[in-house]
Specification:
- The chain is an alpha/beta fold and 185 residues long.
- A five-stranded mixed beta sheet has the order 3-2-1-4-5, with helices on one face.
């Protein structure tokens, strides 16, 4: 008895490419791709050459914060640990002329941040955060005292938030990086 060979039915694969293409489009459309947002900093406008020069700032009203290529912090020509930066900055801003080495008042206080070209991005961000934390804590304390709420809980752009921001204006000046500051011996 001879066996009959049966032909197996073939599967039509012609539409497989269409299905794969449709799945690819579906996943591209429905998948969100996270992108880095960076640091939201508003850059100053380009200076008009006909504009008068900016007013001079007394040295006592400038709080110098330097970060070297070894990520060490030099504040007002003294080495400082990162953990002390927030309190030190708050003390500078809220001096109200008591100490002749610190600012005259919060409106005149300017924090000058300068880093080295070799400073790590992480160290730069940490210093930025500590400086902003100082202003945020001062604003929160004043808002709590005056309005019973944190600064961020006040109506955005409202009179209360404007009053707190006017009391403690955030003035952080960033200078262009240089090659090397002196390092700790």
């Amino acid at each position: 008895m001879a066996r009959k060979s049966r032909n197996l039915p073939e599967i039509n694969a012609g539409s497989m490419a269409d299905i794969a293409f449709l799945l690819l489009i579906f996943f591209l459309v429905t998948t969100s791709i996270d992108s880095d947002k960076g640091i939201p900093i508003k850059l100053p406008p380009k200076l008009d050459p006909n504009q008068p020069p900016p007013p001079t700032i007394k040295a006592r009203n400038v709080y110098e914060v330097l970060i070297n290529s070894n990520n060490q912090l030099l504040v007002e020509n003294n080495w400082m640990d990162m953990s002390n930066l927030t309190e030190s900055t708050k003390k500078f801003i809220t001096n109200y002329g008591a100490n002749p080495d610190l600012s005259e008042n919060p409106d005149k206080a300017v924090v000058s941040l300068k880093n080295d070209k070799g400073t790590s991005y992480g160290a730069y961000i940490m210093v930025q955060n500590e400086l902003k934390r100082a202003y945020n804590e001062l604003r929160d304390d004043y808002a709590q005292e005056k309005f019973g709420k944190n600064y961020s809980d006040l109506p955005k752009g409202g009179k209360q938030q404007q009053e707190v921001a006017k009391k403690y204006p955030q003035k952080i000046s960033e200078a262009e990086p240089e090659d090397a500051f002196n390092t700790k011996d």
